[in-house]
From TrEMBL:
GO molecular function: metal ion binding; oxidoreductase activity
Domain (Fe2OG dioxygenase): residue spans on this chain: 183-285
InterPro entries given in the database record: DIOX_N (IPR026992), IPNS-like_FE2OG_OXY (IPR044861), IPNS-like_sf (IPR027443), Oxoglu/Fe-dep_dioxygenase_dom (IPR005123), Plant_2OG-oxidoreductases (IPR050295)
Protein's recorded name: Fe2OG dioxygenase domain-containing protein
Keywords for this protein: Iron, Metal-binding, Oxidoreductase
Species this protein is from: Eucalyptus grandis
Family classification: Belongs to the iron/ascorbate-dependent oxidoreductase family.
Length: 334
């Protein structure tokens, strides 16, 4: 528990174990908040939304989403209860703290604290959330409204995620319900992240450069920025929009689309004066799901770029390759 950054009394102390190698540091450069990453109004015509989502996925791998149907009050309440959780006394978080990465509901710090050479300025609570009834009993009991609010939120974000996958399926020419068949969207994980104020943001990161392994990711964030997206070799600092979700394409969806959609690498920077709290939802296939380029896309003019594999095997190699700094798709590319 003493490893958690959010539970330390004096964050002005700067441990050397958080100092990144010079080539990995964000440095002193000021990144202007970027307005070029697409903002999609989901209240527009469906056919237009299909084209907008596909275009954003092709060009950036990221977009922000407004008029998405999730209530503003629920979004505010969920961020508030996430902040309340990280502010709890250590003894109230002890029941969910674990250094075992296989534990389903787990509070931990950095990424893999005991194995990594350099740590990252983040605490995270991660747990499964679909179906809610199967998992809610392992969630934290405090704050008192955690289970109720996060349960409602999980259901609403799943509805939104399934709608986005429907739009993407339409854009790729798939039959209706493609992403609902089998085990393609079976797993839904949620991560509550706390990035406390950092005494020297130029030397460390909240999360390193990476691409998400899953299908799609739905990010809820407050007004404090920190997310940066790599585009054409430049880091773009994403401007948080009120009441909007940030959506990004995962590596599994890049493969299913045969590269038509791309998973953009991204990272999280820290802030000297303000804590940043986020709630992230990941939609994954089940471990035994076969992931491969969709057959409707493949033809003589568009051959498969990736080979087929079981998702659980991809998860295993993704962890190894990411840890070793290797491109996680290289071994699956034809």
């Amino acid at each position: 528990m003493d490893k958690l950054i959010s539970s330390r009394c004096n964050l002005q102390h700067w441990p050397d174990s958080y100092v990144l190698p010079p080539e990995s540091r964000p440095g002193e450069e000021e990144f202007a908040l970027c307005e070029v990453i697409p903002v999609i109004d989901l209240g527009q015509d469906r056919a237009e939304n299909v084209q907008q989502v596909l275009k954003a996925g092709q060009e950036f791998g990221f977009f922000q989403l407004t008029n998405h149907g999730v209530s503003k009050k629920l979004m505010i309440d969920v961020l508030e209860v996430a902040e309340e959780f990280f502010e709890l006394p250590i003894e109230d978080k002890a029941s969910v703290y674990s250094e075992d990465p296989k534990r389903s509901c787990r509070l931990y710090t950095s990424i893999d604290y005991d194995k990594e050479k350099v740590h990252f300025w983040r605490d995270s609570l991660r747990h499964p959330c679909h179906p809610v009834d199967e998992h809610i009993r392992c969630w934290p009991e405090k704050p008192a409204r955690y289970r109720e609010l996060l349960g409602k939120y999980s259901v609403e974000v799943r509805k939104l995620s399934m709608l986005l996958l429907e739009l993407i399926g339409e854009g790729l020419g798939q039959e209706s319900g493609f992403f609902e068949r089998g085990e393609l969207n079976r797993v839904q994980l949620m991560a509550l992240n706390c990035y406390p104020p950092c005494p020297n943001p130029s030397l460390t990161l909240g999360l390193p450069r990476h691409g998400d392994v899953n299908l799609i990711t739905v990010l809820l964030q407050g007004p404090v920025h920190g997310l940066q997206v790599l585009n054409d070799g430049q880091w773009l600092a994403l401007q948080p929009l009120p009441d909007a979700f940030v959506i990004n394409i995962g590596l599994a969806l890049q493969i299913i689309s045969n590269g038509k959609l791309r998973s953009a690498e991204h990272r999280v920077t820290t802030n000297r004066t303000s804590a940043r709290t986020t709630v992230t939802t990941f939609i994954h296939p089940s471990g035994d799901c076969l992931v491969e380029p969709a057959k409707v896309i493949i033809n003589n003019h568009n051959p498969p770029l990736y080979r087929s594999f079981l998702y659980k095997d991809f998860l295993s190699t993704y962890i190894v390759d990411t840890y070793e700094g290797k491109p996680p798709l290289k071994r699956y590319t034809l």
